[in-house]
Write a structure and sequence with these properties.
Number of helices: 9
CATH superfamily of the largest domain: Medium-chain alcohol dehydrogenases, catalytic domain
CATH architecture of the largest domain: Alpha-Beta Complex
Bound molecules: NADP nicotinamide-adenine-dinucleotide phosphate
CATH topology of the largest domain: Quinone Oxidoreductase, Chain A, domain 1
Number of strands: 16
Radius of gyration: 19 Å
Helix content: 25-40%
Shape: globular
Number of domains: 2
Order of helices and strands: EEEHEEEEEHHEHEHEEHEHEHEHE
Largest sheet: 7 strands, mixed
Structural class: alpha/beta
Strand content: 25-35%
Length: about 300
């Protein structure tokens, strides 16, 4: 079978399509005939080697995590899914998978769920990482409640757009940031207040916010402490926390890295009920995977970038 692999860290020139032996699931592993795999910012970090101290790859490494396809075989301990099921989930090697951007992927059954309804493989593949990150933050980290005022930085991004939709679904008042056509997008998603970060500083306008989800980091995160009410809650999925600033206002602050059990199932429920709608920006073939990575890195596509297998 064919897989997008690297044998060294580097730019997109290290990407190549390799012919590798077919995979066989054991124990609680599931073998998936991959139909679609989506890219995340992490994928270019992993390829470049920026994350190698924390998440070293074993070469040759098949890239990608977000995946959707059809179960073609299961290990003897698998009870959650069966051959023929349409499934989606996370095939990152660092979570026990074999990598997503390949004709076959092995995934621990715990990292998979059935695709809800008639959602396409491309739309399903676009959701696991970004969607579960948003659900973890909004439901577990921030426990957003009806009527609360919530600020989500980067509402036009993959994590942010799922989070904006979910916070609105919970009845919150949502303020967010975006630029370009992202401004119209977040309005369509239901955001109540939108700040174009290229021309307007949210921190000059927002006060007494109950909860912040930061998906941008840096100066955006630094300014987010000031807009929170005393005792408020902040989750960042990318930045470094300032414990002194947090303590001064009695804030609960969380650097979200891992996810709670059951988050993928929860996401599946939100997708099934229409609370969260996936957004695919553009699809690429496996042969054009390097162009897909370039589109990710130049941020030239609005919506998720999906490779069809
Ligand atoms: N901790 C975790 O578990 C976890 C999981 C998933 C992702 N992440 C991280 O979370 C971040 C967001 O991921 P994603 O997939 O949502 O990325 P994405 O789709 O590329 O979205 C990036 C967002 O950031 C905004 N943005 C870009 N440059 C900005 C700037 N200079 N100032 C303010 N806003 C800016 C973009 O706005 P416009 O496009 O409208 O300009 C967009 O809303 C990434 O760093 C990713 O690595 C962490």
């Amino acid at each position: 079978m064919r897989a997008l692999q690297i044998t060294e860290y580097g730019d997109n020139s290290v990407l190549h399509i390799a012919d590798v032996p077919d995979l066989t699931p054991t124990g609680s592993q599931v073998l998936v005939a991959v139909e679609a795999a989506a890219l995340n910012p992490l994928d270019s970090f992993l390829r470049a080697g920026y994350a190698q101290a924390l998440m070293p790859l074993q070469f040759p490494a098949t890239l990608g995590g977000d995946v959707a396809g059809v179960v073609s075989a299961v290990g003897p301990d698998v009870t959650e899914v069966a051959v023929g099921d349409r499934v989606y989930g996370n095939a990152y090697a660092l979570l026990g998978g074999s990598g997503a951007i390949a004709e076959q992927a092995i995934v621990p059954a715990a990292n998979f769920a059935r695709i809800p309804g008639d959602l396409s493989f491309a739309h399903a593949a676009s959701m696991p990482v970004a969607g579960t990150t948003a659900v973890e933050a909004i439901d577990h980290g921030l426990t957003v409640q009806p009527g609360q005022k919530v600020f989500i930085s980067g509402g036009s991004g993959a994590v942010g757009s799922a989070a904006v939709q979910l916070a609105k679904h919970h009845g919150a008042h949502v303020a967010t940031t975006a630029s370009g056509d992202g401004v119209d997008l977040v309005r369509e998603l239901g955001a109540d207040e939108v700040f174009d970060y290229t021309t307007n500083d949210f921190s000059e306008h927002l006060r007494e916010v109950d909860a912040v989800l930061d998906t941008v980091g840096g100066a955006t995160l630094d300014k987010s402490y000031d807009i929170l009410k005393d005792g408020g809650t902040l989750v960042t999925v990318i930045g470094e926390l300032d414990q002194a600033k947090a303590a001064a206002k009695g804030l609960t602050v969380i650097r979200q890295a891992a996810q709670s059990d059951g988050v993928l199932a929860r996401l599946t429920g939100y997708l099934a009920g229409g609370a969260i709608t996936p957004r695919v920006g553009r699809t690429f073939s496996l042969e054009d995977a390097a162009a897909a990575f370039t589109a990710l890195e130049t941020r030239s596509v609005r919506g998720k970038i999906v490779i069809l297998l």
